Amino acid sequence: MLEAKALRILRNGLLFLAMLTTLWMAPYSSLDPVSMPKMCILVFLSILLCGIWIPRMRQLIQSENRRVTILLLTFIFLLLPIVLFSGTDISLQIYGTYGRNTGALTYLALALVLLSVVFATDVKYLQRFIHIFVVLGVLLICYGQIQHQGWEPFPFQNAYGSNVFGTLGNPDFMSAFMGMVGAVSIGLALGNKLKNWYRAGLVMLTFLTLLIIYETHAKQGFLNFAAGAMLIFILWLFMNQKNRIAYIFSGLTIFGGGLVFLGIINLGPLAGYLYKASLEARGFYWRAAINMLMHHPIFGVGMDGYGEWYRRARNLEDTLVNPGITSDAAHNVFLDIASNGGFPLIIAYLAIFTLVVISIVKVVKRSKEFNPYFVAIAGAWIAYQTQSFISINAIGLAIWGWILSGLIIGYEINSRAQSAVSDAGTIQGNRKNTKQNKQVLSPVTVVSVFATTLTAAVLALPPYMAANNFYKAVKSGNAIELQPAAYLKPYDRMRFTFVAYNLTQNNLNDRALVVIRDATKLFPNSYEVWNILVGLPNANAVEIANAKAQLKRLDPHNPDLK
Fold first, then answer.
1. How many domains, the chain?
2. Residue 437: what pLDDT?
3. Rounded to two decimals, what is the model's pTM?
4. If you count Cβ atoms within 10 Å of the first and of the last residue's Cβ in the chain, which end, N or C, has fewer?
5. Does 223 share its domain with 312?
């Protein structure tokens, strides 16, 4: 049980975290304006907020939250031995690879967010999160239309077929987010007590999300919207006591989902509509991830270590088909977690996934009437899980997958005693008197929050400051001044390769050689680093021979490497 004021701070802080992580970009202070800033915001706020409930951890573990707390703490605990013993560079594992930033810190933050949401959730809070989600959807629809019209206000360099990527950095991610918003809109629109104008607005919002999905040129938004809408309809049938129809429709949905899955892997009657070159590439990525898991079953290849291992893990047949193709993510969240962390981590993740499914079933079984808010949350959750099957764990999307999981689990816990729990200022929803609602934070909580704030600053600020300083060095246009920026801490492989390439372009090969030699010591498993060394005209014969041997070690099946 949390103090009333602490609970209010936790709830408002989580809403702020969700909005900021979704919307925050840094186009004027980082070469990566999306993933890295979102990671820093997520890590800072998630660790800060956990200081609110850490002093009450013993009571929380002994309460109804025991199961989810133990699961999440297990997931968090497993991250440490993976970072220490997987063999991948520790700095890369902690902060993640450039442009992804899904390292150990990100997963730690996501797990803490899920726990915080569970501790904070009751009926009215679930409704507040739904409203925030809808508002974010409206904002991104407006921004997406601005981008579609070519009025982008920020200096982004777009490398995609569509310029509609919102604040998520990629049209695929924007499409997936719109699919989730569309599912939420459908779920809310089925409510029995809505005013006509509100229902009409939700229907309009659904059509606008589908329009944005179309403008992104990414099919996954339609796919996850359809999955969310189908689950919503099934839950509507069950909650309205139409069980026989619900079971029939569930069977048809499972059958249809199976056909879609077969189509994605180029089998069955839908293959011609769903399968394309990008999905063929995903086949390469998935098989490589499975190989990583099989050869590194305990600790995986390290958090965000997929890119360093892809060439080593891919099959001979896949290498021969396209030796130049590569990736730094499995494009499947489950396989990403499995390959990065081994069987223990993926089992922990699947246990959390299973707990969410069980929570949905429990709520539906004891519901006496249709609950549009809970059903909307469940629809958005299944929409997220659908896109996670064919995409990466982009932070702007991942935050919602974990938040939605926390809302579902927390709602189930708080609705066990009664079908509707009033928002009364505690996790259990018990009524508290006015004096307690006005109480100040206890000294222990204040000290805890102060400690977690310092910890959060130490972990989240260095990469942000390094990225900002590197951005300034790049914009200076002075190659010699750029060289020291490669050594900004925490070390980032991209900065070393970027600086080395820039120095060679300015005929500063001696400086480039110094930088790339240091890079080979810091990132010995980076194919890109050794490849640059091979091409340096001033590298000696011994270095070049060693670099070629390292390339062969990192890409053993490539016929182009002798």
1. 2
2. 46
3. 0.92
4. C
5. yes
